[in-house]
Specification:
This protein is 59% helix and 13% strand. It has 497 residues and is an alpha+beta fold. The longest helix is centred in the last third of the chain and has 60 residues. It is elongated. 25% of the residues are buried.
Length: 497
């Protein structure tokens, strides 16, 4: 009796898990009173669910064997009850939604519902329409005019003429414009020298369109990468939860066996282990809920939808550093933008130089006038050339050309720096890819070894094998995620989606 009270005094007083405290009080009260637990009774225990694949067996203490009056039966029953409370019904296929990584990516990234994808498409469309608008300026511009006017006064000069023979005076009107007039005119203007400027402007618009197209596919790849990352994080969290369940069950069983023993046992270490296991269990459960809600949000499902994820098959690709660098320098969006900026800067410089060329255009047209100008024929046509030139602008054109040349040189230097930066990024990503691949292959070999060991395990090592498998699978999926992310970064640098 004194030994049992001594063990009670050793228990920590700052337990912040009410359920664990309840278990300790019940077990210690049984040990103090020396009463056996009835056959049909079970001890309330904290609900720490065990992984469905883990097989638990009743533990027995060798010191109790072959001794009369030992508390083996009293200790065995709480252990069996504890395992029954830790286990939870397996998820039925009707509750959990089975989904693969490819299905998740296809469902989370439809082109019509993603606003970022739509924004990229609109940017491409704006650049395309601007280019086509510039292209249409190469052709003749045809316009028309229609006028029908009535003036309240005579539009001209009235003259009084004396008639010496007949006598008297008469009034004669000399109209400049008709009081009631109608005019219909059609004109066509074909630019001649402005075609040189329009050609440079067309190059600038074409470069803008190419930049928009290079960036248009980025939101889709970013969404797929986010889904892949969350998918693998949930896989890792689920395996970590399985590992935490096994360790929690093992720790709780040891704690119950130690607490129900009549021998004096220091329970401080077992209590700390149980608290630590409970903390790990709570953290793992929270992570699973968090990643499940995140993935459901991407898929458009309710946050509490239970997901059953299919582990993706390993995907290893052989990409040499030379191949990756060549593709990146040819198709990387940043390199494409820098190259097109050089094209735009050079076209802008040429466009400013064309300011010294006179603006010459050919014009032609047809007009029909009804009493607009009475002295003119009813209908007539015309054709000719119109030219304008700015004789002196106080050096404005010269300064503008020098500024455009400086911008072109800046764009060329920026292109060189961008290529160097992309090449360095490709090298780092390639090294990270190789490192992640080696780690992924290593963890898969460890998982295969665990499978072989599990096929020939002894009955008393079932929990150990299950814990090892859950831990190795978590590391394996984390290594696969690192490899896939490194591969995605490398392919993004290579300009592949």
């Amino acid at each position: 009796m004194k030994e049992s009270k001594k063990r009670i005094s050793l228990a920590p007083s700052s337990w912040w898990y009410g359920t664990i405290t309840l278990v300790g009080c019940l077990v210690f009260s049984v040990a103090v009173t020396g009463q056996d637990i009835p056959t049909g009774a079970s001890i309330p225990v904290p609900q720490l669910p065990t992984a469905p694949s883990v097989l638990l067996k009743a533990q027995s203490t060798p010191a109790y064997e072959g001794k009369p009056g030992n508390p083996q039966q009293a200790g065995a029953r709480p252990t069996v009850a504890l395992r029954a409370a830790y286990s939870e019904p397996g998820t039925t296929p009707g509750r959990a939604r089975l989904i693969t990584l490819q299905e998740a990516q296809e469902k989370a990234a439809p082109a019509g519902s993603n606003p970022m994808v739509r924004l990229g498409q609109l940017q491409v469309e704006v650049a395309r329409q601007t280019r086509l608008g510039t292209k249409s300026s190469f052709f003749p511009q045809i316009g028309s005019t229609f006028e029908n006017l009535h003036f309240n006064k005579f539009m001209g000069q009235e003259l009084e003429i004396h008639r010496p023979i007949q006598g008297g005076t008469t009034t004669v009107g000399l109209p400049l414009l008709g009081q009631n007039q109608t005019l219909v005119a059609v004109t066509a203007t074909q630019p001649i020298t402005p075609l040189l400027q329009l050609r440079q402007l067309y190059k600038i618009n074409l470069a803008d369109e190419r930049i928009a197209r290079a960036k248009a596919g980025m939101p889709v790849s970013e969404t797929a990468s986010k889904v892949e990352k969350t998918y693998y994080e949930l896989l890792v969290a689920q395996r970590q939860l399985d590992f935490a369940k096994v360790k929690s069950t093992e720790t709780a069983n040891k704690w119950l066996v130690a607490s129900s023993s009549t021998m004096p046992v220091a329970s401080g270490s077992h209590d700390e282990d149980l608290i630590e296991a409970s903390n790990a269990m709570a953290i793992a459960t929270t992570r699973v809920k968090e990643f499940t809600a995140s993935l459901n949000d991407m898929l458009g499902w309710p946050p509490d939808t239970e997901l059953q994820l299919v582990p993706p098959d390993p995907r290893f690709e052989d990409i040499s550093l030379r191949e990756a660098t060549d593709k990146a320098l040819a198709a990387n969006p940043e390199v494409i933008e820098a190259e097109q900026n050089v094209v735009k800067a050079r076209a802008a410089s040429t466009l400013q130089k064309l300011a010294y060329v006179p603006v010459v255009a050919a014009m032609g047209g047809y007009a029909y006038q009804d009493n607009v100008i009475p002295l003119l024929p009813r209908d007539f046509s015309f054709i000719g050339i119109v030219a304008t030139y700015n004789l002196f602008d106080f050096g404005k054109r010269e300064h503008t050309i020098k500024g455009a040349n400086a911008q072109a040189e800046m764009a060329e230097i920026a292109l060189q720096l961008t290529k160097a930066k992309v090449a360095a990024s490709v090298k780092n990503s390639h090294l990270e890819l190789e490192r992640s691949r080696q780690l992924s292959e290593l963890t898969r070999r460890l998982d295969s070894a665990i499978q072989v060991q599990r096929a020939s395990y002894e009955e008393n090592s079932a929990e150990v094998i299950a814990a090892k498998k859950a831990k190795v699978e978590a590391e394996m999926f984390q290594a696969d995620l690192d490899y896939r992310q490194a591969l995605a970064r490398l392919k993004t640098l290579m300009g592949e989606r």
